[in-house]
């Protein structure tokens, strides 16, 4: 990216770090706390609650869809007036979501089929998905020069990996508390982060 494009972007108020992610962080917090939390309280040998599978799945889906929608809107607002290099970076990041989850689908399906243990998908899907989201957030944070997003992605990748050390429903509790808590904290810190850019 040239010095001229950086100066022009600053002069017009455009900066990739200005993407306000409060809405996205809030919705993803809902997905983690109520979606993964629903699995946490209803899994294991002695579940705290008897919930049908569709309840936590629905709560997780609502949070994820809301979060993705809010994130795309925030990204779209920031792209107005962006340079060609910045737009290319955003498009590549968008493609990473699709290719990443396709690779995850093939990898998890292949692994569980090869081992003859389809029940592993119950734990691998949530943890591997959070791990992938963490890695993509790291990339987004680096491209947009957003330290909060970068740190959040690093944290998600770490806790998703650590969650696999625990028996069920341990991984869901880790995602609920450590993941949901991280998203809530990021949402609280987001206004302060954006204010520092002014």
Compact description:
The chain is mostly helical. The protein is built from 7 helices and no strands. It has helices at 3-11, 22-42, 54-79, 84-115, 121-144, 147-163, 170-196.
Descriptive notes:
By secondary structure, the chain is an all-alpha fold. The protein has one domain. It has seven helices and no strands. α4 (84-115) runs antiparallel to α5 and α6 (147-163) runs antiparallel to α7 (170-196). The protein is globular. 29% of the residues are buried. Mean pLDDT is 86; it is low at 1-13.
Features:
198 residues, mainly alpha, 7 helices, 79% helix, globular, disordered N terminus
User: In the residues, how many domains can be counted?
Assistant: 1
- Helix and strand pattern: HHHHHHH
User: Quick one: overall form?
Assistant: globular
Q: Roughly what is the average pLDDT, rounded to an integer?
A: 86
- Helix fraction bin: over 70%
Count of beta strands = 0
Structural class: mainly alpha
Rg over alpha carbons: 18 Å
Task: Report the major sheet.
Answer: none
Note poorly predicted spans. 1-13
Distance between the termini: 22 Å
Beta-strand content bin? under 5%
Put simply, the count of helices is 7
